[in-house]
Design a protein that fits this description.
CATH superfamily of the largest domain: Zn peptidases
Shape: globular
Radius of gyration: 35 Å
Largest sheet: 8 strands, mixed
Helix content: 25-40%
CATH architecture of the largest domain: 3-Layer(aba) Sandwich
CATH topology of the largest domain: Aminopeptidase
Number of strands: 20
Number of helices: 24
Structural class: alpha/beta
CATH class of the largest domain: Alpha Beta
Strand content: 5-15%
């Protein structure tokens, strides 16, 4: 104390004794505050002399004593004030405040006049506001609040708001649905609600019904008139023999080829399921068929109640997505574009039949017995009491206007990065399970998540875009046109897509289709969401012994029928789609006029609301995980295994490849570079200061490039839109390369060595490009080719 007193004495002995002033200012609306402390009444108390001079005088000693007393009191007051002020600021900072419109969380501002006795009319120094920070809500608190809110949702009430007997794309009912969704989004106080419109080419049923006729000597002996049609089938009439080809997969056609079945000029009868209608038709064209009939086999589906019949389902035959008459570019104003046509449009007519009609045709077939793993039947082409089949399709083209409706919750840290969650709005027929449930889930997600922001103080780091798509029944037309419209920027901004279509088809089993980047998020979510059929277990725990190998057990490939497919294969955006089913089979009435609310409720029984709530919680947790953490939780290391599996598959042909004078060392090196880049990124991430925004942003940039770098840069997005080398479609894909190599075993004369060299080289450089994109700056890349 003596040493401190001496230091203070020496200090004041060397400076004039005047006023000492400090201010604590915090801007709060129009209030001003200032704290001013006086160490001496005025300069005259001690005169114009220094403290050292006053020591010589008796009255100087009194002044010195007075100064020390005032200084001591001031220091005590200052220390107490600062401790109280900092403590108050700490308590306020830990409590999120919700102010203003749209439920935005704003910084809490303290009025310092309430902390002092100074008048609010005194002047205040202006404080620079700090940037808003994302929510500090712990994940467990956030999850519990979400679960509580979901528990109060009654889905049947929401579904009935969207229930209509018909709401086909471009119809008045579809448009009124879009307007209603726009209004509901606006009521939720989302940050912005908007829509875009497209002028697209769809198909309607023709003025005359489509027919399938059994002929005998040119005369009709039995005629089937289906209730549905297959969009984009050419209007045509063909007559030929009938041949059964199971599901219409490539392997099914190869089976017929191996037994020398002549398919040239035949009409092919196939079961629905496993692959899309468009793939079945494309395969039939490849083997020179002239028409395709598709029917649902009863054994492939689940049903409500005991009824065992399925009407002819609606579908489309475009081997692609989007408007097939504006391939590769958006149809914002269709009239501005020159005539164009997708190469994926079918050249042969196609029609669906009911399960009963398909069974009748199958029973008419004679000829060789079907393979043992096919249904118990005959292959044809001979028919009992008949000698031919006539297929008549009268579909008519139709120009229609469709709408996509959007709403957004802006992120607080990286608002220009967003997760998109969407559902198709239209359906052929009632479409309850097909589109109404997905739309209802979308609306509840928007309501719940906006409420978390508005009332619970949650601040998502990244933005959430809610999308209601038009013309989903015709091949994700609305979603694809949007992707085409913003192709050059979306891969830099949209980091994931969550699809809600057909998510509820029963209870008891669960399946998911996703990019490998999403696997980690999916696994964590399955470990926290309760299974709807067995609520004592989470979805993950219910898998039992299969849980450790869940990817092989519940992950199914994305097909072109899924709206998540163009996001992944066309735009390079990691995507996920999920489905609750009964007995691990699809719902029988999807795409038919039997897809009603009554039938879906009968299918689910008492589980109806519970399954719908589980679907909401599963989607919501994925969205929150993607927007909660400071770094994107996309598991880029998963692709190391995907690339390794690809290289291992190629190694089976190592001897053949070496015989061409080629080597697999290049593609092995590219895979190794990808593995090293992923490991390096993981190591850098663990050692970096993630509180530093530029550093955090740079890491997220590198993670976002991984999926997009899997799109081949060597093919045109117009001619070959699905450019993803692992999950896309076309000659640039890894699957196409393996199919080409397979010709060495089937028919070596068809193998094109130069084509294979190009396929291998371009695939290798696509893998290498993915590794380079993840590695960081160009000077940090060390390739050793």
């Amino acid at each position: 104390m003596e040493r401190a007193r001496s230091a203070v004495t020496n200090f004041f002995g060397r400076v004039p004794l005047t006023y000492t002033r400090f201010s604590l200012t915090q801007q709060m609306d129009t209030d001003n505050s200032q704290v001013e402390m006086k160490l001496a009444a005025d300069e005259e108390d001690c005169g114009d002399h220094t403290l050292g001079d006053h020591v010589k005088h008796r009255n100087g000693n009194n002044c010195k004593s007075l100064c020390f007393k005032i200084l001591g009191i001031s220091l005590v007051f200052l220390i107490g004030f600062l401790i109280g002020y900092l403590s108050y600021r700490g308590r306020v900072a830990s409590t999120p405040a919700v102010n203003g419109q749209n439920g935005q969380c704003l910084p809490v501002v303290v009025n310092t006049s309430s902390l002092t006795k100074e008048s609010p009319s005194e002047q205040e120094e202006e404080r620079i506001p700090e940037p808003q920070e994302p929510s500090l809500l712990h994940w467990n608190d956030l999850r519990d609040r979400l679960s509580f809110k979901i528990g109060n949702v009654f889905f049947e009430e929401t579904i009935r708001k969207f229930y209509e007997e018909s709401h086909e794309a471009g119809s008045l009912n579809d448009e009124s649905r879009g307007l209603y969704i726009h209004e509901e989004f606006s009521k939720m106080s989302l940050d912005k609600v908007w829509e875009d419109e497209h002028y697209v080419t769809l198909q309607d049923a023709g003025s005359s019904p489509n027919k399938v006729t059994v002929l005998k000597s040119g005369n009709a002996i039995e005629t089937f008139t289906p209730t549905a049609y297959v969009a984009y089938s050419p209007a045509a009439s063909v007559t030929g023999n009938l041949v059964f080809c199971n599901y219409g997969r490539k392997e099914d056609f190869k089976t017929l080829q191996e037994i020398k079945m002549d398919l040239d000029g035949s009409i092919i009868l196939v079961r629905s399921g496993l692959i899309s209608f468009s793939e079945k038709v494309a395969n039939a064209e490849l083997f020179k068929a002239i028409g395709v009939l598709i029917y649902p086999d009863l054994s492939d589906y689940t049903y409500p109640g005991v009824e065992r019949t399925i009407e002819s389902p609606f579908g489309h035959a475009h081997y692609g997505t989007g408007d097939p008459y504006t391939p590769g570019f958006p149809s914002f104003n269709h009239t501005q574009f020159p005539p164009s046509k997708s190469s994926g449009l079918p050249k042969i007519p196609v029609q669906t039949l009911s399960s009963n009609d398909g069974k009748k045709l199958l029973e008419r077939l004679e000829g060789d017995a079907c393979p043992s793993d096919w249904p118990l039947c005959r292959l044809g082409p001979q028919l009992k009491d008949a000698n031919g089949i006539k297929l008549e399709v009268n579909n008519a083209m139709a120009e229609k206007k469709i709408h996509n409706v959007f709403g957004v919750i802006r992120g607080f840290d990286e608002p220009d990065r967003y997760v998109v969650v969407g559902a198709q709005r239209d359906a052929w027929g009632p479409g309850v399970a097909k589109s109404t449930v997905g739309t209802s889930i979308l609306m509840e997600l928007a309501r719940l998540l906006s409420d978390l922001v508005r009332t619970d103080g949650y601040k998502p780091r990244r933005s959430i875009v809610f999308a209601s798509w038009g013309a989903g029944e015709f091949g994700a037309v609305g979603a694809t046109e949007w992707l085409e419209g913003y192709l050059t920027t979306l891969h830099l901004k949209a980091f994931s897509y969550v699809n809600l279509d057909s998510a509820v088809q029963g209870a008891g089993s669960f399946s998911v289709s996703a990019s490998p980047l999403m696997y980690n998020v999916i696994e964590k979510t399955m470990k926290e969401v309760k299974d709807p059929a067995k609520t004592d277990y989470t979805i993950y725990a219910k898998l039992g012994t299969q849980a450790s190998n869940w990817i092989q057990n519940i992950v199914v490939p994305l097909t072109m029928e899924n709206a998540a497919y163009p996001f992944l294969a066309y735009s390079g955006i990691p995507s996920v789609s999920f489905c609750f089913q009964k007995d691990n089979k699809p719902y029988a009435y999807l795409g038919t006029k039997m897809d009603t609310l009554q039938n879906l409720k009968q299918l689910l029984n008492a589980d109806f609301d519970r399954v719908c709530r589980t679907a909401v919680e599963f989607a919501a947790q994925i969205i929150l995980r993607l927007t909660h953490d400071s770094t994107l939780p996309l598991d880029y290391s998963r692709y190391s295994k995907e690339l390794l599996d690809s290289v291992m598959a190629l190694n089976k042909y190592a001897r053949d490849i070496k015989g061409m004078g080629l080597s697999l060392s290049w593609v092995n090196s590219a895979r190794g570079d990808f593995y090293r880049a992923a490991s390096s990124l993981e190591g850098e991430l663990s050692q970096s200061d993630l509180d530093n925004r530029p550093v955090r942003r740079a890491f997220n940039d590198r993670v976002m490039k991984v999926e997009h770098s899997m799109l081949s840069p060597y093919v045109s997005p117009k001619e070959t839109p699905f450019r993803h080398v692992l999950y896309g479609s076309g000659g640039h894909t890894f699957t196409a390369l393996l199919d080409h190599l397979e010709l060495l075993k089937i028919n070596e004369t068809l193998f094109d060595k130069d084509l294979f060299r190009n396929q291998l080289a371009l695939l290798t450089w696509t893998f290498q490009g993915a590794a380079n994109a993840m590695a960081g700056e160009i000077w940090e890349i060390d390739n050793e080719f």
